[in-house]
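User: Some background: our group keeps a shared notebook of sequences we're curious about, and every so often someone picks one and asks for a predicted structure to add to the entry. Today it's my turn. The entry only has the sequence so far, pasted here. Could you supply the structure so I can complete it?
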Amino acid sequence: MKRKILAGLMAALVFGGVPAVQAATAGKNEISIAEIKQMDGFYRESAPAEHLPWLTVEDRRWCVRADGRIICWGSYPEIRAEGDASPALQKALLHWSLAQKQQHDAYAAKMGKSDGTQMKFGPCYEYTVVDRWGRVDDTIVSFVLRYGYFRDGEHLQYSPLVTENIHAATGEKFSLDEIVVGRDSLLAALASVFRAQYPNDEEYLFAKDVDKALAKYHKVENWQKSFNWMLDANNDLVVFYNPGDLVPYAAGSFALRVRRDAFPAVFRAVRG
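Assistant: Of course. Here's the predicted structure to add to the notebook entry:
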């Protein structure tokens, strides 16, 4: 079926008035890291899952070429659990990686219809990499993704972070209320951590009231879903804020680490 679809697309390109040389090159191709870094010096590969032989990550890099030049490129991580990992986790990560692939395939197909002449500012790109790994064991698999894109002059001035937290036994997503006792105690801890971490910033960022800003951002309804969080290798909670989330865009991004030994009342026991 896939070959028939590709054949149909090629025929449409050739007989639809698009030059044959363009039709032959405008498609999803492999691209080297060296080629990517020539175009984007900030790109880096996904962090390896060190000391975890049952968990692997491999970046799948691709590009679209037209008339011998790259008009678009991308990269996404393929994460696999094998060996001692539960069948449910293996299946969950397989489906997660497949979703990443499908998203990039769709983007590549869209750009494959272009001859690249509208790309006035160089090749466009869209990538996802594993920025770091947190706690990974037979209870939870916690990691952070970093995104980046550039589309004809429109680009991210920062690379947003998005977290994933998965039950190692069931393959289902962890909910934050499985980790912490409740919203109010967590917000109080985050405010305390912010004041300790940025002692001179509360006044001009939050008019001396970081508690109010946190409560406004993390509303009561479905509060668990408003947090971008992970458990780190020490089993402490790390909450990430991208530019514009809690503070003005120009203030940048930051992370707050709520340590278990400093705030034991915030946490509940993590179940497998």
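Suggested note for the entry: The longest strand covers residues 69-81. Confidence is low (pLDDT under 50) at residues 1-26.
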